[in-house]
Design a protein that fits this description.
The chain has 16 helices and no strands. It is mainly α and 381 residues long. Helix 5 packs antiparallel against helix 14 and helix 11 runs antiparallel to helix 12 (283-297).
Length: 381
């Protein structure tokens, strides 16, 4: 294993240890909103808040990362994630939980950006490293979700967050080994950029898979199975991350063999079909299909971005795609909280699936900058 592979693994493991408290909150908050002192619409806002703050915060995280290096950036982010988990265990009410969600948003931005930067440090093998990185990231949540669901069924939704507070500090063992050398990404004088096809796809994927799907899994699942719903939903949610462990590396290899864009389009269209079935009542079957397809898709975007935006400006481009995904994933829980109690779920998921399908097809033929024909051929094979 070369040095780039090792740094990619360390960054991914740091995110893996910090992430479980957030993923478990996505499962528990819609089901146990009253235990946390919030309503369902307020739960949707809280689940969206960490993503919405990243819309603004990624720019500042990117600048801090460039000037201070990965080691300090990720160390501070890990400490912030542990404080958030402790707050979930002890605090109640919308205004008490909101600052924690904002802090987690900035912490995740730092860890996520570091993981993507490390995995795309060299174009050669970027898809492979991106797939392996997603597998490492999923380890913590795959373990925490089923254990947390069982403990919650027995002891309520608070105890597990005390345990995760201690677990969230373990990544400090890996962040010390990350590079501390500052970087200097290219300055981008345009603060507002019109979204391109990848931006729109990132937005809609975040909106559907990280927003509507995750909240709907808890909300609709509770109605279909009032007894034991938290355990079933926890197992299905955990399967999302188990699938990432085993299938995200497969997605990376598929991208290197068949072309990342072609694989992205095909998997996105299959996901849209499963989303319609999910909304039509085939909840658990289609949920399992969606988590498999999502796992295969996760490693595709960073290598596409790295090929279309080579050089130091890759950092800005990766952050930009993450912002658009967060805009979608931030609005998804809000829309789910507002619509699912009143609008038939088939309408909600069929509409979002149609939009995702159109955006995926639009990614096929991007404008090719002068001198970058080789990159375009690599991504489409």
């Amino acid at each position: 294993m070369n040095s780039i592979d090792r740094q990619s693994r360390r960054a991914a493991l740091a995110l893996s240890g910090a992430l479980p408290a957030d993923t478990l909150l996505y499962l528990l908050l819609p089901m146990y909103a009253s235990d946390f002192g919030v309503t369902l619409p307020e739960a949707g806002l809280l689940l969206a808040a960490n993503r919405l703050i990243r819309i603004i915060g990624y720019r500042y995280v990117q600048e801090f990362y460039a000037h201070r290096g990965a080691a300090l950036t990720c160390t501070l982010a890990v400490i912030g994630s542990a404080l958030c988990s402790l707050g979930y265990a002890t605090l109640s009410g919308f205004w008490a939980l909101l600052p924690l969600r904002l802090l987690w948003g900035i912490s995740f931005a730092a860890l996520n950006l570091a993981a993507q930067i490390m995995s795309t440090a060299e174009p050669l093998g970027a898809a492979r490293r991106s797939g392996r990185s997603r597998g490492y990231v999923a380890l913590g949540s795959a373990l925490a979700l089923p254990i947390g669901a069982v403990l919650t069924e027995q002891f309520g939704p608070r105890l597990i967050f005390f345990i995760l507070t201690a677990a969230a500090l373990l990544p400090l063992l890996t962040t010390s080994g990350l590079p501390s050398t500052p970087q200097s990404p290219l300055k981008d004088t345009r603060r507002f950029r019109l979204p391109n096809s990848l931006d729109i796809w990132s937005f809609l994927e975040g909106f559907t898979l990280d927003g509507l799907f995750v909240v709907g899994l808890s909300y609709i699942g509770k109605d279909l199975m009032p007894t034991g719903a938290v355990i079933v939903a926890g197992v299905v949610s955990a399967l999302r991350y188990v699938a990432e462990i085993f299938l995200s590396p497969v997605g990376g290899h598929m991208a290197e063999r068949f072309g990342a864009v072609q694989v992205l389009i095909g998997l996105s269209l299959l996901t849209c079909i499963a989303l319609v079935g999910f909304g039509d009542g085939w909840l658990w079957t289609c949920a399992a299909i969606i988590v498999v397809l999502r796992a295969l898709q996760l490693p595709l975007l960073p290598p596409i971005v790295a090929l279309r935006t080579p050089g130091p400006d890759r950092v800005r481009a990766l952050a930009s795609r993450a912002v658009w995904r967060d805009i979608g994933a931030g609005t998804g829980p809000i829309v789910a909280g507002l619509l699912l109690p009143f609008v038939p779920s088939l309408w909600v998921y069929a509409t979002s699936a149609a939009c995702l399908a159109i955006s995926a097809i639009a990614c096929k033929n991007p404008p090719v900058p002068a001198g970058n024909v080789k990159a375009s051929s690599l991504e489409t094979k």
